[in-house]
Amino acid sequence: MSVFLAKRFAIFVATLLGASVVVFLALEILPGDPAYAILGADAEPSAYEALHRELGLDRPAVDRYLGWLGGILTGDFGVSYTYSVPVFELVVERLALTVPLAVLAMALTVVAAIGLGLHAATHHNKIGDWGVMAFSQLGIALPNFWFGILLILFFSVYLGWFSSGGFPGWGAGTWPALKSLLLPAIALATVQTAILARVMRSSVLETIREDYVRTARAKGLTRRATLWRHVLRNALIPVVTVMGLQFANLLAGTIVIENVFFLPGLGRLVFQAIANRDLVVVKDVVLILAAMVVVVNFIVDLAYAAIDPRLGARDA
Amino acid sequence: MSMLEVDRLTVAFPAPAGPERAVRDVSFELERGETLGIVGESGCGKSMTALALMGLLPEGTDTQGGITLNGRDLRTLDEEAMCRVRGNAIAMVFQEPMTSLNPVRAIGKQVVEPLMLHLGLDRGQAKVETLSLLERVGLVDPRRFYAAYPHQLSGGQRQRAMIAMALSCRPEVLIADEPTTALDVTVQGQILDLIRDAVGESRMSLILISHDLGVIAETVDRVIVMYGGAVVEQGPTWDVFTRLAHPYTRGLFAAMPRLGEGRRRLRTIPGTVPELADLPTGCTFADRCSLARETCHSQPPDMRPVGESHSAACLRLDAATATPSFGSRR
Predict the structure, then answer these.
(1) Which residues, in sequence order, are CB contacts of A145 under 8 Å at separation 6+?
(2) Domain of A195: which CATH number?
(3) How far is the C-alpha of A51 from the C-alpha of A47, rounded, in Å?
(4) Which value does ipTM take for this structure?
(5) Do the Cβ atoms of A220 and B84 come within 8 Å?
(6) Which of A211, A217, A219 sits opposite B99 (nearest CB)?
(7) What residues in A contact B105, CB-CB < 8 Å?
(8) What range does the domain containing A115 cover?
(9) CA atoms lying within 13 Å on the CB side of residue B247
(10) Do the beta carbons of residue A203 and residue A235 sit within 8 Å?
(11) What is the domain count for chain A?
(12) pLDDT digit string, tens, across residues B91-115
């Protein structure tokens, strides 16, 4: 197990290093000078020169890259130009919204997808199956920001059940905060559910045909008991794989959805930082997003080992 | 009345070209403690007969005929009642020990299931019983095997675990479908011995399905030869093996490689098994039979006596038994 963890940690570090190079290079190539963005296009040349130097933009790229990386390693994420606060504080504050949003969306996805997939598989070629497949086809085709707007129109504007956007903060109480995250989470989860339900359905259909399922029935287990005890766990293996991949998608999805619902989360932060050329923030946030994806993949690997004893034996 | 009576069992699968009748008018009886072998090529309907007995044929299958166990017609039971029969009164050991056990559950957890389900044992009692079962089927150090996962076991060990599972509720009928086919030759004998001992000790009845005539000859009292979904010959094993009557049974024996005959091409039966969706009106074996006449192609053969309780379905039985068979030649 310790070998497994060491290997995982090496992959974690390597992925983040790779991500840091890519982010840094992308922002080097991207046009737009932060000094101009801060001062405006008609700034005094002397003021521009001064700010340019103050931001360290006159130093060579390699210098600046190493400086940035060294800062992160010592816990210094730099200071945002636009907010004039340490990026670390900014990010922690925003994560308090984005992480619960992503977790809520993923939880909705998993529960709905496993339920729908099981229902479709056990009603194979019947109305229940067709219904789930039709929903899934529709769900895959929906862009989540558009679906988010529909949800606002119906639940907030027409029914008035939810506010149409914004976030009261966790200080306002758990329920009001969760309530404001519910619609965005549903918007994010719908597309994911549509895909994952399909994976679950085909995985269950495949598992049902396995010899050990016939063995379970030959022991006298009912169809239902066989499904719960012998089909479900085996069928979850490919579902967990897709879940891991979806999480990365989900984080990208939050950038759009947080803008639709005016949520002050990490996605909205990075969106605004790009618009304002607040490069320190962009670099740090992208790196944090990459780290989150790698951590989730690690959790997925642990889940594999928990589901399938054959994998644990190979890595230990 | 026999313990198990199968009366004109017919199994048909829906197929684009019309229903495929995988089993046709199969009838046999099995007494308590008796051992019965079913022999035939793959696709002859022997496994389908077994699954029909278990009530585990795929959905949409059309099953006709009667299956009576101790006077109770299993065909009329609902799914719930049939669940109480499976693994309890009739248990089954499958061909592929590598895929017949759930890979993500420990062996013990899988053997425990029928005990808790049918005998109403609690988890603790079931575990004690399972440990003694595992030991009985030759998995010494049962605690280790109880906690082990299928991938940690060899093929022979997995089949032993399957047998432990099948024996757990002391079934009246044990069905073993090619139980040794997927195993190494050295292990095959051990597994057969295990099945034979278990059957002998508890007076349970055995239906052993195999394409291996050697396995059948060593294990069962009575044998049924199936071809194209139907019974073509049946009788006491010794009688059938010494007085091969049906041309197909003879072909099956002739195709068996034997020591002491030098190196020569193995004999085969010419032609292929008939399409189940398009069976000939007459004898299904006629197209491959060297003795076939006009009538064989048009008239379905009925079972005719060859000896005492030994019969075969062949219109040319006289011609077939007139030539010496392998059995009598030896």
Answers:
(1) A187, A256, A257, A259, A260
(2) 1.10.3720.10
(3) 6
(4) 0.87
(5) yes
(6) A211
(7) 229-230, 233
(8) 87-308
(9) 23
(10) yes
(11) 2
(12) 999 988 889 999 999 999 999 999 9
